[in-house]
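Lecture 7 notes: from sequence to structure.

We start with a single chain of 532 residues. Read the sequence below before looking at the structure.
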Amino acid sequence: MGLSTIDIVVVVAYAIFIFVLAQYVSRDKAGHTKDSSDYFLASKSLPWWAIGASLIAANISAEQIVGMAGSGYAIGLAIASYEWMAALTLLIVGKFFLPIFLRNEIYTMPQFLEQRYGPSIRTIMALFWLALYVFVNLTSIIWLGSIAVNQVAGVDQNIALFALGAFALLYQIRGGLKAVALTDIVQVTLLVAGGLLVSALTLGKIGGDAGIVGGFAELTRRVPDHFDMILSPDNPHYKELPGLAVLIGGMWIANLSYWGFNQYIIQRALAAKNLGEAQKGVVFAAFLKLLMPLVIVVPGIAAVVLAPNLARPDQAYPTMLQLLPPGLLGLVFAALIAAIIASTASKINSIATIFTLDLYAKFRKLPTRAEDEVELRAGDERKLVLVGRITACVAILIAMLTARPLIGQSDQAFQFIQEFSGFFTPGITVIFLLGLFWKRANEAGAIAAAVASVVVSFLFYKFLPDFPFMNRMSVVFLISLALAVVLSLVVNARANSNRITMQGVAFRTTAGFNAGGVAVILILIAIYATWW
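Now the structure, written as tokens:
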């Protein structure tokens, strides 16, 4: 498969447009030199629409579009629980987590850990997140993106991988978070419109004269096993999505860790103008999340009927793109590239943020304007921004070189990412939940939870390989929680180790937030009641 001339023109025009737009919106005002707050936190000035769009753009990338469509092909609509339960998780993050983070002027998750527990846990978790972001998340984004580019445009996969990484780096290296966040509304609009178009055309092809609605009805009739939201134990994919665990078990641990305590996601909300804007942004993102299965999963399920003999499930979405006529293919392909670039750029910026502010600045004992309201020497600020840019270059280069050996052998890359990340997420969730809501929690308990999460998860993986990883996360979460509580009760915390204040924190939300939250919950009830 290849792109026609008109498709190439559309893709190139879009690439030029979004690159120029990113540089324009992140330009410096006359006489102002970009400092650490500008580069890493967009000057703490993001409006709600930028926050909501950027949350989705950072989240939805090749690992979601190609990977989740592949899981839709293999498993069915049940994989959409990752999207639909995330909408509910976002409401919890907005109501209970953001008021504490923003009141305490948190700018990175490791910084929160230091202010809550002490410096050791900050360094440990900063190193962990850097490793996870570079070797799991960043590699998966550009690897799956290169698969799509190869299958749709016919470009050599190695060339595609390096081109995607290089463009994402150049896209954000000058402007930082502002370049990413303020252009993501364009990226998300194109992503949603393009994805809905693919779904409409695939369903229309299945339905024939009956149209899109008829096509969906025919799809549910042809592959009814792909429309079970809650899988039974006899389902061959029960190990990946073990029944009720998606509603009341391990998926909550994964979602809370990802949406509440994940730097490259929560960084958008931390850069908000104020709490109200941040909360409006997460409600906007929650509604967008409800749409995502239509954009991503439905084309994967449709491929079961339209292309039943694919060699690998991850080929489903690129194969469905072949149904598009010239021009429209270029537009939808541009949407796919937009998602890959936006998510890659977001990840690169967050890697640079953590390394620069949580490791380099602390090691060199440099205050940052993002953390301290002090007048710093211009040279120090320029140095921090330069270190961030160098870190971004190194991170994407490492990801390019390690993507094939790390991700290339996985049959369902999305499931691989979830299972590998599941080694760490129980401990992360324990550390943050106790840190936010239990005053007695201390650094000894937090470190024990982090270590236990990895060790116990590995033992399960090694000796009980058939135990569903989502259930494994639940068990490991409880073990890590018990360890953290016991050690926090037995070991005395260091004096003044908890510098997180709850004074002035209010969990009361606006009528608009509450109305939006109720609407999201009702829609979710309707969805699960229909396809239980």
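The longest helix spans residues 328-363. Keep this in mind for problem set 3.
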